[in-house]
Design brief:
With 553 residues, this protein is α/β, with parallel strands linked by helices. It is 52% helix and 12% strand. Strands 6-5-4-10-11 form a five-stranded parallel β-sheet, with helices on both faces. A three-stranded antiparallel β-sheet has the order 1-3-2. Strands 7-8-9 form a three-stranded antiparallel β-sheet. The model has no long low-confidence stretch (mean pLDDT 90). The protein binds one RNA strand of 77 nucleotides through helix 2, strand 8, strand 9, helix 18 and helix 20.
RNA sequence: GCCCCCUUAGCUCAGUAGGAUAGAGCACAGGUUUCCUAAACCUGGUGCCGCAGGUUCGAUCCCUGCAGGGGGCACCA
């Protein structure tokens, strides 16, 4: 609907010898202002040196004359808005088009095949995923689906931080627990900064670890002797759990990139050399520094410490270089909001490597707090007391978990009330939306059983009989493209979730007020068409969010 | 001290890349089931959009300052 208006406005402005004018179209707040509206006359007032109302009148007159079959009413209002009300017939034609070819309606070519690397979750494999990771996973997966529907080519990658001291701590913790549990050495010292969570014990008691270490005598060999083996195995087992959590959330990655591999293949050194060749690396206090200030960072950053070790930032540079080397044109990283301070330095590195800053985007994911009985559940990672993503998925199910993660802008803190999430009531938006889909499915099924079937080839707008409530739903459905485009542009998946919630909020009352299957054949077919369309949208939206769209509940 | 984010109805939050008279849900009160799924629906009313300036035809939205809340500052990861 907005696409047609856009074209019409473009043609109209062309008549006035105006080309390449950005056309804004919006849905007016108040229904009485029409279906769509444009403030274009106010925009043009300056260039044309005419009052906006005069311009608006000219636009109105012109469109009225040339497109009498599309508009019911065109009005000039306010300071110069042009408000459009479509003819019912036009709206219904649009509806039929959706049913006839919904892929065409739901997919867009905003990205024009642009290759995007989307990196998300990337949690250190030193413990189970927590809620924040889950939120990042949900947002990442949804964003990927959305951008692909928007014509981008998106690759999803998980970066495994398996090279640093954290992995050593993990291995050391596992080793110490092993001595304590399986070697009868209850007093074996546990590393002070080790990981104390129960999951360490689970790794130790896991038969897989024991069997993999059969050839070694862990009770005799010192940690130093077998550390690399234990570190590695612990990391592998941890990753296995992480992969399972993500798989159960239906989150999948195209590639899992290991940090350790970057070192083993000399890519870290290579990346630093590359920057050195560009004159962006210098030595100070026997350390190597990257001139990130050249690209707007507050201060230069160390890449090679004076003790000869690379910083975490060094491997990050190498990793992001690797992203570019594979030909990706846009880099999107999804991070916890506590990492926001890293944006300038990574952005600097990418710019130094030749990427324009607008092609690097970071989505920051804010904290998730869990409420039980209305009170926040205290979490402390050091003491090993925290609620894992796994526990929440098991308790409230993956669909609810994902939807709740996506029912808020990603950069604002989120509270999840676990009692409410389990309630499966109106407090729980995911059920509200899914239920609308299930209800529609049930209606369509019933109609089929009664032998009522919509023949899309034969149906014409003149067959339709839709009332005011129904037209409101039709318009909401027809506004999907606008919503979708804004979601792609802003990279804010929550907009889809809110849209679906609003659509469900129109459908449920409608369902309650009217019956779809009636004695009147035309009315039945009309309403059925509306239902089929709504179902297409619910299904699409939920799928984009990674949430299931059940036919029965 | 410096940087980032947040501040909208009693509560939780939207607000369509600057538009018209700022919206939902919850909570609270009352009601609805012979009917395609009651996990639903209907009827009730609320706002110094944190404060103060600025930009302009127009600001909840952009800029500056201030206040309150959260997060971050490293040759940690």
């Amino acid at each position: 609907m907005e696409k047609e208006l856009n074209k019409i406005l473009e043609n109209t402005l062309h008549i006035f010898n105006l080309t390449h004018i950005p056309i804004e179209i919006e849905i007016p707040r108040d229904e009485s202002y029409g279906d769509l509206s444009t403030p274009i006359a106010m925009r043009l007032a300056k260039t044309l040196k005419k009052p906006p109302k005069i311009i608006a009148e000219e636009i109105k007159k012109n469109i009225y004359e040339n497109y009498p079959h599309i508009f019911e009413k065109i009005e000039v209002a306010g300071q110069g808005f042009v408000n459009f009300k479509f003819k019912e017939e036009f709206l219904l034609e649009e509806l039929i088009k959706i049913i006839a070819n919904h892929r065409d309606y739901l997919n867009f070519d905003i990205g024009k095949g642009k290759k995007v690397l989307l990196e998300f979750v990337s949690a250190n494999p030193t413990g189970p995923l927590h809620l924040g990771h889950g939120r990042g996973a949900a947002v990442g997966m949804a964003l990927c689906n959305i951008m692909e529907a928007g014509g981008y080519k998106v690759f999803k990658e998980y970066y495994i931080n398996d090279a640093g001291v954290q992995i050593k701590k993990l291995g050391h913790s596992v080793y110490a627990r092993y001595r304590q549990k399986l070697c009868d050495e209850r007093d074996y010292p546990f590393p002070e900064d080790g990981y104390r969570g129960d999951y360490i014990e689970e790794i130790v008691l896991n038969n897989e670890l024991s069997s993999l270490l059969k050839e070694y005598n862990l009770c005799k060999d010192t940690f130093e002797e077998i550390s690399s083996l234990v570190n590695n195995l612990s990391c592998q087992l941890m990753l296995k759990d992480i992969k399972k959590d993500l798989a159960d959330m239906n989150v999948h990655f195209d590639t899992w990139k290991s940090e350790k591999e970057l070192y083993d293949k000399g890519m870290v050194q290579e990346a630093i050399e590359h920057l050195r060749d560009k004159g962006l690396i210098y030595e100070k206090d026997s350390a190597l520094w990257f001139k990130s200030t050249v690209y707007g960072d507050d201060k230069d950053r160390v890449v090679l410490k004076s003790n000869g070790e690379y910083t975490y930032f060094a491997s990050d540079i190498a990793y992001h270089k690797y992203k570019l080397d594979r030909g990706f044109e846009e880099i999107i990283d999804i991070w916890g909001a506590d990492h926001h301070g890293y944006i300038p330095r990574i952005s600097s590195a990418l710019q130094a490597l030749g990427l324009h800053s607008e092609n690097f985007n970071v989505l920051l994911i804010q904290m998730v707090t869990l409420l039980r009985d209305g009170k926040p559940v205290q979490m402390s990672k050091r003491a090993g007391e925290f609620i894992t993503l796994r526990e929440i998925i098991d308790e409230i199910g993956p669909d609810t978990t994902k939807f709740l993660f996506l029912f808020r802008r990603h950069d604002t803190p989120l509270e999840i009330d676990i009692e409410k999430a389990k309630e499966q009531s109106a407090d729980n938006p995911v059920y509200y939306v899914q239920y609308a889909h299930a209800r529609i499915s049930s209606i369509i099924e019933k109609a089929e059983n009664l032998g009522v079937k919509l023949d899309i080839q034969k149906i014409k707008p003149s067959n339709f009989r839709l009332n005011e409530d129904e037209l409101r739903i039709v318009k909401k459905i027809l506004s999907y493209p606008m919503l979708f485009k804004s979601t792609v542009k802003t990279r804010e998946p929550h907009r889809i979730a809110f849209y679906l919630y609003e659509l469900a909020g129109l459908f449920h009352p409608y369902y309650h007020k009217y019956r779809v299957i009636t004695e009147d054949r035309d009315i039945t077919l009309s309403r059925l068409a509306l239902c089929i369309c709504a179902k297409i949208i619910f299904k699409e939206g939920l799928t984009l969010l990674g949430v299931s769209a059940p036919d029965k509940m």
